[in-house]
Automatic annotation (TrEMBL):
Pathway it works in: Glycan biosynthesis; trehalose biosynthesis
GO BP: trehalose biosynthetic process
Keywords: Hydrolase, Magnesium, Metal-binding
Protein name according to UniProt: Trehalose 6-phosphate phosphatase
Catalysed transformations (reactions): alpha,alpha-trehalose 6-phosphate + H2O = alpha,alpha-trehalose + phosphate
Biological source species: Sediminihabitans luteus
Function: Removes the phosphate from trehalose 6-phosphate to produce free trehalose.
Cofactor list: Mg(2+)
Amino acid sequence: MSGPTPPPLPDDLVAALDALAARRPLLVALDFDGVLAPLVDDPSASRPLPASATAIARLADADDVHLALVSGRDLAGLARLATPPTGTWLVGSHGAEHGEQTPDGVHAVPLDLTPDQRAQHRELVAGLERVAAGAEGAWVETKPTAAVLHTRRTPPDQAAGAVEAAVAVATGLGLDAMRGKDVVEVAVLATSKGQAVVALRERLAGERSVDVGDVGVLYAGDDTTDEHAFEVLGDGDVSVKVGDGDTVAGARVADPASVAALLAHLADAVAAPGTSA
């Protein structure tokens, strides 16, 4: 059963997408949760909307267009749930993990922590587990370079205290805490989605033997961590905030259904005669 039809895309966003569609090479970089997939209480149940899956498959098949997923999820989990097209570049753990979807699964770039970082990671996980034990519905997700306290199912009065306690754990270990939607994530490696998008743009420019500034970029995200990605985009790029909240993005849409419409429009524009370089 299909959901409600999303509202029409804003005219200025349509114009920006049409202009972006003429640029080559083109990088289409997207967050997963809250963007391609609706937010759900059980993270393991997240799946892309069918319309989004169709649109990104079309974009992945287009000439000189490259697809990337940039997520806070660990790399293996991102690939398993997103089921991206072959050739998609994958960035997990907010930029700490990198890989590519192949016909045989994910080819991941090896990631090694120092002995000190591994010890810090163990202390971090243990500290957040203690916080979760004191808050109803809270739980801890362990990633290769980070740990995440989830409070989506925690009563609001307990969630606020758990968030502050998680931040205190991070501070005690000399680490920074990233607050997102019902999560606090703490990493033992300093990374960001902004750094990841810069690296992806540079990689695409290098593979196509063009200047970095010649690469057009679309980035869509819904969380506070996506603001770092919006900040590194330039003139002619398109940044899209999904949902409510303050943002530096140039455009906003309401929800994943609107993202599906946006991606379908871009796929149509990219395929239109005369748009490819």
